[in-house]
Design goal:
It is built from twelve helices and 15 strands. By secondary structure, it is of the alpha/beta class. It is globular, with a radius of gyration of 20 Å. The N and C termini lie far apart (49 Å). The relative contact order is 0.13.
Amino acid sequence: MARTYFITGFPGFVSSNLIKKLVDIDHDARFELLVYRDQIQKAYHAIEDMVHYSKITIIEGDITKSELGIDEGTRRRLTEEVTHVFHLAAIYDLAVPEDIAHRVNVNGTRNVLDFILPFSSLKRFIYFSTAYVSGDRSGSIYEDELECGQAFKNYYEETKYEAEVMVHSYMNKLPITIIRPGVVMGHSKTGETAKFDGPYFMMRFLDKFARLPIPYIGGGEALINLVPIDYVVDATTFLAHDETAKSKVFHLTDPEPLTVREVYRLIAQTLVGKTPSYTLPSSFVSKTLSLSLIRKWVQVERETIDYFTLQAYYDSANTIKHLKGTGIVCPRLADYMTHEVDYYKKHRHEPEKLIKVN
């Protein structure tokens, strides 16, 4: 039986790369892509670049609506045909307001879960969570841990946590695999990425001060967990078809992460050719970025600074065990940072790649 993939979150960065990978390895598969109405034209343009795109169907829908806003005839067809569901649609903005985050990340996930319960051919539901459901926890964070009394740095983390708790409650009803990526960067070979957020805020910050002595921000002892998109996609694709990955959680994180200070220095040396020579307290930078005028000029979200002090290590023993022998490993950041910076330098002035900072 040919596989049929139902995927939310297209044409987002991770979903687009995931589909390209699945198309490449599974020529007989069909794809049903749930797309929000204001992304329809972008979605059609995106699939034109894909081989076998004639086997891709775009469905206008909305995860915040009952039955995902899909008509009865399409629902009936999906119920009979879909074998794999990837739920990636979410609000990823660290500065997202609570009501929007809850509506999309929590209610949206509940709607997707309920929508797929009747799927008669379903072999796997792959839910994209985040490593940062750990909130403010410190020390080693394990893949089989979730509800540990943690608090959260923002509504993105909190609502992704609430959504994952809910996904776990469906484990006895659906064949579920949960993916918890770290901070996703561009491709390790090309540097290609869709948006300059996350660690790219460091690059945007350094751009503003390139002609001045470069400061470190805070002590920088915290570990920062960065993973390239190709590792996330390759690992997810394998785990989605691995029978032993059912009912399990996987940290797609760097098993040998660098500290914030090391990453910042690496970016500074690669981007502007300078090594930071003094330190600004992270509290000072955070307070400065609380001023809208400064925040907009630097083009860095204040919430980013919270991750400069997070004392957590994301253990990925379960992931490493399942990927053993596949050749799928997380590359070392120092080995691909040049590609990330080169891509940023070539595309840093393109409006569609910049996250609007308010």
